[in-house]
């Protein structure tokens, strides 16, 4: 992972926290797994999935996460 991608991840995590969400990254380490490198947004108070849970868990890309947090989605 390069520094630019890690910076985007950290920025997205902070934005999610300010909006009352938790940003979760898939724990999979197998690049062939369907949810590898995927993301999910969870409500921090109810612990319910807000985005990225359909059609399977961790179905968002980092670009999708950024669009959601910016209100574009």
Give the SSE layout:
Layout: H1 3-18, E1 21-25, E2 39-43, E3 49-51, H2 62-70
Antiparallel strand pairs: 1-2, 2-3
Strand content: 15-25%
Counting DSSP E segments of at least 2 residues, the number of strands comes to 3
Rounded mean pLDDT is 92
- Helix/strand-derived category reads alpha+beta
State the order of secondary-structure elements, H for helix, E for strand: HEEEH
In which range does the helix fraction lie?
25-40%
- Give, in spatial order, the strands making up the sheet with the most strands: 1-2-3
Number of helices: 2
Characterize the largest beta sheet: strand count, sense, and whether it forms a barrel. 3 strands, antiparallel
Brief descriptors of the model:
3 strands, 3-stranded antiparallel beta sheet, globular, 34% helix, 2 helices, single chain, alpha+beta, 73 residues
Structure explained in plain terms:
This protein is an alpha+beta fold and 73 residues long. The chain has one domain (3-70). It is built from 2 helices and 3 strands, in the order αβββα. The chain has helices at 3-18, 62-70; strands spanning 21-25, 39-43, 49-51. A 3-stranded antiparallel β-sheet has the order 1-2-3. A hairpin with a 5-residue loop joins strand 2 (39-43) and strand 3. The longest helix is centred in the first third of the chain and has 16 residues, at 3-18. The model has no long low-confidence stretch (mean pLDDT 92).
């Amino acid at each position: 992972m390069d520094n630019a991608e890690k910076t985007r991840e950290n920025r997205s995590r902070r934005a999610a926290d300010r909006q009352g969400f938790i940003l979760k990254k898939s724990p999979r380490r197998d690049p062939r797994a369907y949810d590898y490198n995927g993301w999910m947004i969870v409500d921090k108070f109810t612990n319910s999935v807000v985005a990225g849970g359909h059609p399977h868990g961790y179905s968002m890309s980092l670009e999708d996460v950024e669009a959601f947090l910016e209100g574009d989605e």
